[in-house]
Write a structure and sequence with these properties.
The chain is an all-alpha fold. About 80% of the residues lie in helices and about 0% in strands. Helix 3 packs antiparallel against helix 9 (about 170-185), helix 4 crosses helix 7 and helix 5 runs antiparallel to helix 6. The longest helix is centred in the middle third of the chain and has 26 residues, at about 85-110. The radius of gyration is 17 Å and the shape is globular.
């Protein structure tokens, strides 16, 4: 047996790959995602589709989010993160939560939208996530993370959805409603 071979590592890689493929199937993904998160992702899909006018692009965005969440869950449940990486996980969680709170506030409070705040918060969350998963995920998965953050961190997207007279306001409202519910349930 080769010194570098470890069955546990092979098993973990297989789990990530299988769950990553399964996450593409909406009915299978529901096994891993609660009702509130499922509704949030459905509404993120609707918002992305309305913004881009492209069903495939919106589907790809949501599938990438699901695959990432599933892979992070597999890594965490299998104790793959070092103490330093868990620190980055906590930093990511804090930045993600404060970004979600800001999105809710910017939607609910007139004239409070602050593009630079969101861009900075998203960049910090992206950095923390990169430090968390850097040694665990493939380049393809890292590319998925980049595409997610590039979409949500696009200044034109942010300006469009947070404009008071935005035609996307109803879609954003449904996303915010789901985010509020997720935060109340402790999921964000």
């Amino acid at each position: 047996m080769s010194e570098g071979f470890r069955a546990r590592d092979i098993g973990l890689r297989a789990q990530k790959k299988i769950l990553g493929r399964m996450a593409s199937n909406k009915s299978v993904a529901k096994v891993f995602i609660d009702e509130t998160t499922g509704s949030l992702l459905d509404n993120v899909y609707r918002l992305a589709k309305a913004y881009t006018g492209n069903r495939k692009e919106a589907e790809k965005l949501v599938k990438n989010i699901i695959k990432l969440v599933v892979k992070l869950g597999v890594l965490y449940r299998n104790g793959q993160f070092s103490n330093e990486e868990l620190h980055h996980a906590e930093r990511f969680k804090q930045r993600f939560h404060s970004t979600a709170m800001a999105v809710v506030s910017f939607y609910e409070v007139d004239f409070s939208y602050d593009r630079m705040y969101l861009l900075t918060a998203l960049a910090e969350a992206r950095t923390a996530l990169g430090l968390l998963v850097g040694r665990h995920l493939t380049d393809k998965s890292i590319t998925r993370i980049d595409s997610i953050f590039n979409f949500f961190g696009d200044p034109q997207f942010l300006d469009t959805v947070f404009r008071r007279d935005s035609e996307l306001r109803p879609e954003l409202g449904r996303v915010v409603e789901d985010m509020n519910r997720a935060m109340d349930e402790g999921g964000m």
